[in-house]
Amino acid sequence: MKIVFITPASGMRRFALYRLGNNLYGHPNSITGPLILGHILKNAGHEVEVYEELYDDLPFEKIAGADVYCLYTMTSSAPRAYFLADRIHREFRARVLIGGIHASALPEEAAEHADQVIVGEGESVILDVVEGRVTDQIVRAECTKDLDSIPFPDYSLLKTRCEAANVMSTRGCPFRCSFCTTSRMFHPYRKRSVESVIQELRYYKKLGFKYMNFEDDNFTADRERAKEICRRMIAENLVFRETFFFGRTDLAGDEEMLELLQRAHLSRVLVGIESLNQASLDLINKHQKISDIRRCAAALSRHKIRLIASLVLGIDTDCAEDIRNGVQFAKSINAYQLQPAVMTPFPGTPVYDQLEKQNRMLTHEWSLFDMLNVTFIPNHLSPWALQKEFFRAVRQFYSFLSSFKIMRIFGLQYGLRRLGLCFLMHLGMPFAYGIAYVGKNTHYYKLKHMEKKPEIAANPT
Ligand code: B12
Ligand code: SF4
């Protein structure tokens, strides 16, 4: 059979300007699920192709003629996946399977557009579903306990641009922050053997990848294991030009690990700082102290590991001043990048259940659920005021002056990337504000004019 996997990208992510910003932010890379599931199907003799919409337009005519189309969904890309599923049904009359993190949280919704929906990690069932041995419309997949038994992502299947190989050395996270989707989708927390990870890195070196990311939700959760991976990378010359990873502030407590991370070129890390208000950290179940944040920032700076500081904007116990403090802090420590993430109630999380129960959801238009848009009624701010705090955070952090600081600290290449990002951010901001004033029927316009309806904004029971 011929099988085509598609990872869709939501509306604005397909615009040229956004694609340019994406290239400046990091190196084009791929979600690994479709490449792993595709590998399983290829090993069984099927012909498989994988397309990502984020970096290139989907060549719709070229993908005609397959027997099965497999669509990945995250929440913001689900409407696009449903649109493509309907179009494939209509024009190609072929079978459509839908999976991924959003479909796993709301399978009945996805089933309106698919012949079958797979809930959870697809490895254990994909072959039986594609070959017709499992026929339920909603298939609940058991997660694979032994991650070493899963084949590596097969990059030869990927037909769209990719400069960095993504490695998942673990699945899930031992923590349970209240807004987090991945610690719930990938549950329980599981680790691959160091040997299996090293084998995968050898394969990417052979393929000629210059960049590699550890996309584990919390790469340093098991410090001894992370150290062992770095040691082996250094010893076997499996070091890439740059490796991005996700960490927590607790990584700062281990000098040996910091040194190994730096030597193995794990030189760009996204850390969830979330808020500089302890009550907020406690409310979201972060298990993190303000002192941990400060210690982490200092340690990363000492080891020249570039920090992407992630803040959650709109936690119930935070007011505008807390958000501004967070941004100010990120500036003061010369964080390499800022990810101001508007609190987003992703289906399947306790935050979503709470806001639904309290009748505080403003919309269920999933394309807006990408951490850039306010989709609920905040506690201390009006929805538009929170949206403006997001714009303000971006504008303040990505000032032109900051690019020269980054250039001085991290070098010309990173300074220029930052400068490019600043240009794009400053270009995009007036556009977003403009929409809020004149773009009737747009989300920003609705948020802005909601301010005039205090009974909605001020009554989050
Ligand atoms: C790599 C990555 C990216 C990359 C690549 C994305 C791309 N090319 O589209 C980059 C950095 C560009 C990115 C961007 C974004 N991302 Co992202 N990303 C990830 C990350 C870290 C790893 C993905 C991965 O490889 N997972 C591991 C594999 C094993 O899992 P999987 O791919 O989901 O596949 C399994 C199952 O889902 C299922 N499956 C998958 N596909 C299919 C298809 C079918 C048919 C079936 C049956 C089953 C199935 O089986 C697979 C094997 O077990 C995840 C976090 C995570 N742990 O998943 C976030 C994550 C998916 N991203 C997220 C978000 C929010 C975004 C952005 C919106 C961020 C932003 N503000 O711009 C954008 C949107 C991009 C888009 N396409 O529209 C969220 C989504 C939350 C949600 N519920 O919607 C996640 C979960 C992180 C988080 N914050 O919680 N992302
Ligand atoms: S530490 Fe990060 S990955 Fe782990 S539960 Fe919290 S937000 Fe999710």
Automatic annotation (TrEMBL):
SMART domains: Elp3 (SM00729). GO terms for cellular component: cytosol. Keywords: Iron, Iron-sulfur, Metal-binding, Methyltransferase, S-adenosyl-L-methionine, Transferase. SUPFAM superfamilies: Radical SAM enzymes. Residues 12-140 form the B12-binding domain. This is Radical SAM superfamily enzyme YgiQ, UPF0313 family. The keyword Ion transport does not apply. Gene3D superfamilies: Cobalamin-binding domain (3.40.50.280), tm_1862 like domain (3.80.30.20). Signal peptide: none annotated. Its cofactor is [4Fe-4S] cluster. Residues 159-381 form the Radical SAM core domain. GO terms for molecular function: 4 iron, 4 sulfur cluster binding; catalytic activity; cobalamin binding; metal ion binding. It holds the Pfam family Radical_SAM. CDD domains: Radical_SAM (cd01335). PROSITE patterns: B12_BINDING, RADICAL_SAM. InterPro entries: BchE-like, Cobalamin-bd, Elp3/MiaA/NifB-like_rSAM, Methyltransferase_Class_B, rSAM, rSAM_horseshoe, rSAM_sf.
